[in-house]
């Protein structure tokens, strides 16, 4: 008997079992959805759902009241006012050790709005059937999923979050993802995605969080990211893109977190970011030349500054001392020169100024033994 036939036989038998289990008491979840949950459980490898009780009851494996940190096990329903009819609205199965595959049968839960299968052992591909759902949140982070991202996901115009990072997805991004005008989070980091970002992604005008680090993309960072006016977090570390960083980034004034690294291409000047209230700024190995822009010293919310492995020159302005909120300052492997402002080294920050050309005066290297400061090969002695 082939796998497809055995699954049909199992489904029929399971339906009979459900009819027996709920026939006397009457379940609040409609029978078609109970049956769909049985099929979904088999696909996922979920073994502890107890179908002798109502799946919306929160009992017997349907909900863990006090899960371990980072894990979650819950089926949530929305019920009528008299609690006689319920529909499944979310399935959250985080860190449950699920060894199976993604279930196409999600389409049999018409009221389902959220799935979260984060940190499991799920393999295989994303079923294209999901394109007919009305999901708002899809989180498949940290599994063993592979194949291409199906273009059918672009049909889920209700989608607000698509979290696919830390898997083995490959191929190019389907342009149809540009149809997701309500999408706020698109997380694709740590996959094997290739090709260029589709131009139609410029239509994602609701986007607030975009992460594509650790992939194999090609081409330039598109200037159309300037359409993402609501963007708060942008991560493109070791993503394969070429520079320069488009000047349109300067109009994204809602950005608070920028992390871009390993951009190949021509030398480029420091982007204009002075109108942003950044907390994290990482522009590492981006072929940036010129001096540190004065506006950096005015970023009162900044906690992390990493500009390492560029071609920055000139001196560190003494106004940088006023950045009391910055805890990490990484300026290693540049061509910075002049004296290092001593107050900058005396505030308990974690600082890396190694591999630069700073001048050390007659007093020698500042006493940083009690500080988290790296000055290795950061200077030459001033003989005057």
Task: Summarize it.
The chain has 384 residues and is α/β, with parallel strands linked by helices.
Tell me about this structure:
It is built from 3 helices and 25 strands. With 384 residues, it is an alpha/beta fold. It has a 14-stranded mixed sheet with strand order 1-2-3-5-7-9-11-13-14-16-18-20-22-24, with no helix packed on it. The protein starts with a helix and ends with a strand.
Keyphrases for this structure?
Leucine-rich repeat, LRR (right-handed beta-alpha superhelix), 384 residues, 10% helix, alpha/beta, 14-stranded mixed β-sheet, 6-stranded parallel β-sheet
Q: Note the overall shape.
A: elongated
- CATH fold-level assignment of the domain at 267-384: Leucine-rich repeat, LRR (right-handed beta-alpha superhelix)
Report the top-level CATH class of the domain at 267-384: Alpha Beta
Low-confidence runs of at least 5 consecutive residues: 6-26
* Widest β-sheet, arrangement of strands: 1-2-3-5-7-9-11-13-14-16-18-20-22-24
CATH superfamily membership of the domain at 267-384: Ribonuclease Inhibitor
Q: What is the CATH architecture assignment of the domain at 267-384? A: Alpha-Beta Horseshoe
Calculate the terminal CA-CA distance, rounded to whole Å.
89 Å
- Strand tally is 25
**Helix segment tally:** 3
* Helix and strand element order: HHEEEEEEEEEEEEEEEEEEEEEHEEEE
By secondary-structure content and strand pairing, the structural class works out as alpha/beta
Rg from Cα: 27 Å
Largest sheet: 14 strands, mixed
Helical content band: 10-25%
Q: What's the pLDDT, averaged over the residues? A: 89
Strand content: 25-35%
Protein name: Probable leucine-rich repeat receptor-like serine/threonine-protein kinase At3g14840
Pfam families: LRR_1, LRR_14
GO molecular function: signaling receptor activity
Keywords: Repeat
């Amino acid at each position: 008997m082939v796998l497809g036939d055995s699954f049909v036989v199992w489904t029929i038998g399971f339906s009979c079992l459900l009819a027996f289990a709920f026939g006397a008491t009457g379940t609040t979840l409609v029978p078609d959805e109970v049956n769909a949950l049985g099929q979904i459980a088999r696909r996922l490898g979920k073994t502890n759902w107890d179908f002798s009780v109502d799946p919306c009851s929160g009992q017997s494996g349907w909900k863990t009241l006090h899960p371990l940190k980072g894990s979650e096990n819950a089926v949530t329903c929305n019920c009528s006012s008299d609690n006689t009819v319920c529909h499944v609205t979310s399935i959250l199965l985080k860190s449950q050790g699920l060894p199976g595959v993604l279930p196409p049968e999600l389409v049999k839960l018409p009221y389902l709005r959220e799935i979260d299968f984060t940190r499991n052992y799920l393999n295989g591909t994303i079923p294209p059937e999901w394109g007919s759902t009305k999901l708002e949140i899809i989180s498949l982070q940290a599994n063993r999923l592979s194949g291409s991202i199906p273009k059918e996901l672009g049909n889920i115009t209700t989608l607000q979050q698509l979290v696919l990072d830390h898997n083995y997805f490959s191929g190019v991004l389907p342009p149809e993802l540009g149809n997701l005008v309500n999408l706020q989070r698109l997380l694709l980091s740590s996959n094997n995605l290739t090709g260029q970002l589709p131009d139609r992604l410029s239509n994602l005008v609701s986007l607030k969080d975009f992460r594509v680090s650790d992939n194999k993309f090609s081409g330039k960072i598109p200037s159309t990211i300037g359409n993402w006016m609501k963007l708060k977090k942008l991560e493109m570390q070791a993503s394969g893109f070429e520079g320069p960083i488009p000047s349109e980034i300067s109009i994204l004034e809602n950005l608070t977190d920028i992390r871009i690294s390993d951009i190949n291409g021509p030398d480029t000047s420091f982007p204009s970011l002075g109108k942003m209230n950044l907390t994290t700024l990482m522009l590492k190995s981006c072929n940036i030349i010129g001096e540190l822009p004065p506006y950096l010293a005015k970023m009162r919310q900044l906690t992390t500054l990493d500009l390492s492995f560029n071609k920055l020159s000139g001196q560190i302005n003494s106004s940088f001392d006023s950045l009391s909120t910055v805890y990490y300052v990484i300026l290693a492997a540049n061509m910075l020169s002049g004296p290092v402002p001593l107050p900058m080294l005396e505030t308990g920050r974690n600082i890396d100024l190694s591999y630069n050309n700073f001048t050390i005066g007659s007093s020698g290297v500042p006493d940083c033994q009690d500080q988290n400061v790296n000055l290795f090969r950061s200077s030459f002695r001033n003989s005057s």
